[in-house]
Write a structure and sequence with these properties.
This protein is of the alpha+beta class and about 270 residues long. The chain has two domains: about 5-110, Jelly Rolls (Sandwich); about 165-265, Arc Repressor Mutant, subunit A (Orthogonal Bundle). About 45% of the residues lie in helices and about 20% in strands. The protein is built from nine helices and seven strands. The radius of gyration is 21 Å and the shape is globular. About 35% of the residues are buried.
Amino acid sequence: MRENRYHHLSEHHGVELFEASFSRQTFGRHAHEGFAIGAIAEGVGGYICRGESMVLPKGSLSLMNPEEAHTGHAAAGHVRYNMLYASEAAVRSILDIRKLRGFSTIAPRDKELQLTRALSRLAGCLNTAELTDGNIAIGEALHDVLTKAFAHYGRAELRPAGREPAAVVRLREIIEARIEDNEKLTLDEIAGLIGLSVSYLIRSVRRATGLTPHGLIMQARVAQARRALLAGAPAADAALSAGFCDQAHLIRHFRRHYGVTPGALLRH
């Protein structure tokens, strides 16, 4: 059985993620200062909230507004869920919105498990020990969780994503320059250089290219490593020059992009 894990994201407005996995643990009546956004991934959870005793099977969401008192327990056997805790200020900043209505329904079913998967992806990013541009991947995963939670269940009105061709061109230029100089990138820095908010940049880049900024960065790093390999560099050197943690990390991403390992790249 996996142990509980609690992540504090100090570089992302102090947002926290609780990876819960238990059978007998119970939580007494308590409340959180910010929003609590969770999804039952396995088993059945339960709690008392808003005067009701609730049972949450797999596929259920738990959406609590700040200062909503509740209990918590496994309602049947073992339960596993991910729960995100975010202050109102953090949500407003990350999503770049002023009006925040909160959640009207506390335990809705997750539509096509979108929020469940988004929370799982965030947990995956946080549990990956060596991740190139990991802070960007975490930031995008966190943004995706909050977008799905508040746009789908909190009636938040986000600025519609645009295609922003000039911003996409500028983003690609920034990525290429930084990777060539083997420098790290951050979402805040990229958005600042382009002159857009992080939230709008992520959503507009995805609309225009089908990829997030992190996806474009990884694509550029793999291409840089490929150029080094074609120039005769050993795979380990190509990996480091392109900003990968090690050769194994390059191999995984190279196969994902090109369908082969670096060793199968033949020069004629």
